[in-house]
Please model this.
Amino acid sequence: MIALNKEPLVKMVNITKRFSDVVANDSVDFELYESEIHALLGENGAGKSTLMNILYGLYHPDSGDIYFKDKKVNIRNPLEAQQLGIGMVHQHFMLIPTFTVLENLQVSGRGPFRLKPEEMIEKIKRISSELGITVDIDRKVHELSVGAKQRVEILRLIMNRAKILILDEPTSTLTPQEVVGLFNNLKKLRENGNSIVLITHKMYEVYEVADRVTVLRKGRVVLKSLKVKVQPKDLADAMLGQQREVKPHDRPEVSNPALMRLESLTVLDDEGEEAVRNANLHVAGGEIVGVAGVAGNGQKELVEAIYGLRPSLSGKIFLGVNDITRAKIRDRIENGLGYIPEDRKIRGVALDLSLDLNSIATDHWSKPIINYNFIDYQKVKEFASKIISTFGVITRSNQSKASTLSGGNLQKFIVGRELIKEPKFIIAENPTAGLDVGATEYVRQTLISYRNRGRAILVVSNDLDELLELCDKIVVMYKGRLTAPIPRGKFDKLEIGSLMLGKEAETA
Amino acid sequence: MTSLSVDLIASAILIGTIPRAMPILLAALGETLDQNAGILNLGVEGIMLMGAITAFTTEYFTENFVLAFIIAFAIGSLFSFFHAFASVSLKADQVVSGTALWFIGWGLSGVLYRFYFGNSPSPPVIQTLHHVSIPYLSNIPFIGRLIFGQDPIFYTVIMSLLFIHYFLFKTRIGLNLRTVGENPLVAKAVGVNPSLYRYLACMFGGGMAGLGGAYLVLTVVGSFFYDMTLGAGFIAVALVYFGKWKPLRVFVGSLLFGAVYVFYLTAETYFQYVPYQFIEMLPYLFTLIIILIAGTRAHSPASLGKPFHEE
Model:
């Protein structure tokens, strides 16, 4: 399918990009040919997204040149990229959730004053049947699955005459079945003459769909090849360098009684619908239980009910032997509950307050820090310093605002604050979302060592690979129901994927 | 109370509702467009008063009501330009800047009145607009007079209502405007300039509020007195929430409000055993109730009131 003698469509030469003192791209060369799927492979933080954001005009390289069809181009913003036929699907979809698919596709800076829905519908139908990309035109976007939203994004790019499609980690929140569908769509697009850049950190995707691969590590190109010429071992070596994959951890046998237990828990969402239905769950000391599922199947409501942010309609929540179903959050925390929230900048910290003050966010009532309702700032400082040094948080001072911390450091700080008092049970919600490889590894190792001290953890994550790596048991959440726990020995990615899509299963 | 007085109240409501509803409808339509672009303008009350005083002054000295409406629209746009500058360019808190606008309009309209008309105990009066009966249609029994026998501006308002509905939901520019109110980044990604949309929507919204004030003076009251809007600007903002940011629903809300208002005006005469202070509360109590009902389930444009930070 690939003619080797052809000239590349896009050539990026000697691209260097620094962010303050971090070199994200170091003299990177990258070529993209016509009608190919090109995997840009690397660990989180290797510089893949930075490189593609440069091509898309979101960032400007410190040095280096971009050639489009052999002509040197200066892409100053995404609009200029779009004019060259370059489109990008970001991890956060650029869609309006309350609009229908049709409305989303009609938003445009150019065109006649009056909308012509009939013409648009016809155009959508034509292109979608040509490419086999199915979308539900009249549905509102917030009702769609992640995979369907992604198809809308891809369709929009094609309709705007994009020839080059950049997809940033498109599979990270898809079920395995949706991944198959996406890859079929991409192959069809390739036949249609499009070029696709697939940003990914999953090696098997290279073999499944890519024609060519470029591997980045720490901002440098370490390998370039047609996929047929590269062995999996070489690919892994290139991607990971000397670092060896962390082996699934051995752990002490669990025989402790449950540290956290749900009994027929039912919780309503904001609209008054049942978001969690009759859920039963059992998390014992010394184990990590993962909740897998496509986002929006009740995970958020489940977590909020356990932590006490949302009332439960019926059922019971036990922490150890205590029934905490109706307890206040403060009582839950005093009973040994910790929470690492997903929105670390919204729920995790108060961005405009210092690390000192943020360190007492989840305990601002007990001695010795609080004495007769007065804050002992000396003690606060000592406490914050302890978190900062124990968990390796990099910051200028204790007085720095939380907003000055990088994502990884902020997460270390929050994890530290929650774990330092050794609660018996902790909920971690997408604990590594958006973190670079170092911080991700640190957070996971921290959770594992905490488990090894006999504590219990519930991890809720949209990233199935993360759960497969981290958890001792996985339950799948679909439309508010939890399946029976699947033990580590029986993890089967496809099976879990079809449960995530609603395949009938014995409920717990 | 006799059945005669019930009839009188009922017919007063039928006849009086539309004129009372129009000023608020004008302001609420402008605010609807404004908020669909993501700008919350709480200064509507002040802008209406400014529209009222400028329209009154213009009409009094020139007797040209078209000019009076144009100037009221212009002054409303000018006021809102400052709001747009604060909330779009300076990315300031929209509640603070809107409130400032209210205070300025409130005070300045009173000062201007004193400046032109002194402190006379009986305010000067102008001729309100004549009603125009549309031939044949106004002869339809009962509803004919009601719908086809109004003043000329009424027909313009209804046409602008239909146009704003058409604009928001049937045109590309309207869809882009709603996109700006939901997520300016998405709009920017397809080549739409969110700041420009917000400036124009805000200035149009202010102009409409100015027209609302002018309508009150030129066709309903025929005079100006200090603080004459009596909270109509805030009720207009409330109606946008009641109408869930859709012009036709806002229209329905404004009619409901007009009816309650006329009821309060006439009921004072008939319910003499009820302290008038309680009856005067009615329009505001009504506003409170519809906000409580509508506000709990309303989904506002996602970026309403949030400045757009380009990354």
Q: What stands out?
A: Confidence is low (pLDDT under 50) at residues 243-247 of chain A. DSSP finds 17 helices and 23 strands in chain A.
